[in-house]
Design a protein that fits this description.
By secondary structure, the protein is of the alpha/beta class. The protein has a single domain, classed as Aldolase class I (TIM Barrel), CATH 3.20.20. Helix 5 packs across helix 7 and helix 7 packs across helix 8. The longest helix is centred in the C-terminal third of the chain and has 19 residues. The chain is globular and about 45 Å long. It starts with a strand and ends with a helix. Bound molecules: 1,3-dihydroxyacetonephosphate. 1,3-dihydroxyacetonephosphate binds next to strand 8.
């Protein structure tokens, strides 16, 4: 059985005080959520304090990015996955479409970051997803397959135990346009088949595949009813404790 994950990606929002307040407000709302893992991803500057304040709770903390290097070194502005683990993170989001689009992150970079994250003992949420043009051109499945193969290249079957895939169609992010549960299910099935090809049936069966793109309290239920949707990566609707809690408590 794959335990669902409901993760909130706070992107570049919230000053430190607001981040801590939101995390603390969320705590009692999700204290009884045993049906899924609950993860929040604040900005770098809030990670340590949020992680400290959530210690002992059932909310885990994720970073939104990490360096491609696992070792200390002269890399101005970068943060190793080991440093994230050190301050209490257990997850890191890698290769979000905003990073691929606006920060030129390639599958090769995503692959290096993923390897460094796994080596540091973090769980990596690796994001894939096609643009609207790619979907309209009938290329959605081939684009996602290429992203997956590139991002997961060289990872062993045992490394894959720390990998979570997030399917986030770019056209559904922040637009209010969710993929229909059928569209999402179709792609999640494709993702699982691709992983069966690269890492075998057992890995494909166990890997959790999250959906992201305009997930709201109103649509989480129908998405989660799909057999290959194992949770959600939530942007806008995760910024408010009450709305995120309603998504976590979809059951
Ligand atoms: P929205 O939920 O705001 O569409 O964002 C999705 C996302 O990018 C999560 O990583």
């Amino acid at each position: 059985m794959r335990k669902p994950i409901i993760a909130g990606n706070w992107k570049m929002f919230k000053l430190l005080g607001e981040a801590v307040d939101t995390a603390l407000a969320l705590k009692p709302y999700v204290a009884n959520a045993n049906h899924c893992e609950v993860v929040i991803a604040p900005v770098f500057t809030a990670l340590k304090m949020v992680a400290d304040r959530l210690e002992g709770s059932n909310i885990q903390v994720a970073a939104q990015n990490c360096a491609i290097q696992g070792e200390f070194g002269a890399h101005t502005g970068e943060v190793t996955p080991g440093m994230l683990k050190d301050i209490g993170c257990s997850y890191v989001i890698i290769g979000h479409s905003e990073r691929r689009q606006f920060y030129c992150e390639s599958d090769v970079a995503v692959n290096k970051k993923t390897k460094a994250a796994v080596e540091a003992g973090l769980n990596a949420i690796v994001c894939v997803g096609e643009s609207l043009t790619e979907r309209e051109g009938g290329e959605a499945e081939s684009v996602v397959k290429t992203q997956l193969r590139g991002s997961l290249a060289g990872l062993t079957v045992s490394d894959m135990e720390r990998i979570i895939i997030a399917y986030e169609p770019v056209w559904a992010i922040g637009t209010g346009k969710t993929a229909t549960p059928e569209q999402a299910q179709e792609m999640h099935g494709h993702i699982r088949r691709t992983i069966a090809g690269t890492h075998g049936e057992a890995t494909a069966e166990n890997v959790r595949v999250l959906y992201g793109g305009s997930v709201k309290p109103e649509n989480i239920g129908t998405l989660m009813a799909q057999p290959d949707i194992d949770g959600a990566l939530v942007g806008g609707a995760s910024l408010d404790a009450d709305s995120f809690a309603r998504i976590v408590n979809y059951k």
